[in-house]
Amino acid sequence: MTNVTNKAIPTLSAPSKSLGGVVRQIVNQLGVAVASKLVPIATIFLYSRMMGVADYGVLNIFQSYLWIFALVLSLNLHVAIGRYIYLPEAAFESFLGTTLLSVGAVFVVGSIAIMAFAEVTSVTLGLPQLLLPLMLVTVAGQIVESLMTQIAIHDQRGELLLRIVAGKAVVSLSLSLALLLVWGGDKFFAVLLADAFASLILSVVVLVLLRSRIEWTLRPDHLTYMARYALPLVPYMLGLTLLSQFDRVIIDRFYGKEATGLYSLSYNVGVLLLMVVTAVLNAFNPSFFTALNKGDHDRINRDARLIFALALVPTVGIVLFGQQLSSFVLPARYVEGFTLIPIVALGGLCSVVFQIWVRVLAYFHKTATISAITISCAALNIGLNLWLLPLFGWKVAAWTTVVAYFAMTVFCLGVVNVCRLLPPVMPWREALWILSVLVLVLVNMQQPLHDVLRVGVFFVVVWLVRRDLLSLMHREVR
């Protein structure tokens, strides 16, 4: 295969290859990550102050179900754009039209079914029936945003994506705050109504922007490609959702919505570092495909070290300072869960290694293997939670997530090496760092480190990975 050129697929603009270009793309993608998580971040720092713990728990349960419904109501077909767009022979306009028509048909049929059995669905989810229409609108917005994100990453138009996602976030946040100030009923409903309205606006804006690039057709060959690539990934996406969200559902069943609220807040703080990783991975995805197309394995390994280093630094920062900073900026009624923040951050670091190398499996269309790995580890996580939560309490859910993410990483690297998709990948250095962070978490849980020592440890870590961090100065996007 050869790399896709701008002549093969019309783009929103010509990408920049300079150092400033790669840094700008990372900054833009980091902005997109922050903007897309603005509502979850607001739930941490704003909404947690404006609603009770039980309302906060309902809000997070609702958000836990969103991506599950996004999978069901799209069959995950839209993610095929992110792979197809890099093919040299891609007929993008007709593929985009086929994607929109097929996903739209699935969404309409699924929505009708959900509303026809609204009462049963509401009882099963443990959510008020009135929230179901809001969920459908919000899910539609997530699907459209995912579609636009894949296209903008290929086109290296991070600034456009940032404006779109940030616009949605600002509308959602502003309307949420306004409604929370005057809302007399359940506070969570005000937030979800605002987010649904913002999702509707985003969907309209994206479809208008893409209208000149859509060829409204339904080509069988595109449907076949879509099905072969995307359908095997449904268990993968479901597994990731279960890993990151379903522990809250189990906690709600065992311990109620207040425990769910406590756990959710701490989890949301601990997982903030993944925004950095998402930004870097998105910025380097074009160069990743280019390197694999050319067989440039050295570049892949260098980029992997860089991405891990960029994830390690904020992880160590959260482990060392997250609990203390949260005590300053978050309501005291959530303090019981703050001890989980370093543990969640450790799990996030384990998942980073998986995210780096799972792209190799996606490149070689081993999507069924990806799904098998993820759903197995999600099942492991659920099984551990069902076994251990009644014995040790709801806080153990953070540790079961660490185990599941570590298992995913091990299985992924095992497949890459056993199938010889690349020269042997042996990230011993990353494994040692993960072990070191684990020790740091355990030590800090037993006896919190002195402030001066925490600062010293942080700067030592930065110094040890300085070469990887500085390698960014010598990189280009493509």
From TrEMBL:
It comes from the Bacteria. Signal peptide: none annotated. InterPro entries: Poly_Biosynth_Transport, Polysacc_synth. It is found in: Cell membrane. Keywords: Cell membrane, Membrane, Transmembrane, Transmembrane helix. The chain crosses the membrane at residues 26-47, 67-86, 98-118, 130-148, 160-182, 188-209, 229-246, 266-285, 306-325, 337-358, 370-390, 396-419, 431-446. It is a multi-pass membrane protein. GO terms for cellular component: plasma membrane. PANTHER family: O-ANTIGEN TRANSPORTER-RELATED, PST FAMILY PREDICTED COLANIC ACID TRANSPORTER. This is Oligosaccharide flippase family protein. It comes from Undibacterium rugosum.
